[in-house]
Sequence to fold (91 residues):
Amino acid sequence: MENVHIMNQIETQLNQLRLNGMVNSWKAMQETRRHNELSLQEGLEILLQSEHSKREKTDALSGFEKMLASAIRSPSKKSDMILRVVLIKTY
Fold:
């Protein structure tokens, strides 16, 4: 029972620190019971890689959203072309 409490504390702390990539990876490791098979180093590597990947995706999306917002605010030939490409790829 104490083990479950510790696992919940870890998840809570990761959430409080807004380490969403690590939270998702931690949950996956628990669900598959893989966390018991990994060394500390292996587990940390997986958690850190998950967080890094999540942030890369978030940064890329944020950059795309900024570009799209700029194109909508300040229409030009270039922004019109960007919006058309987005619409074509989206639909």
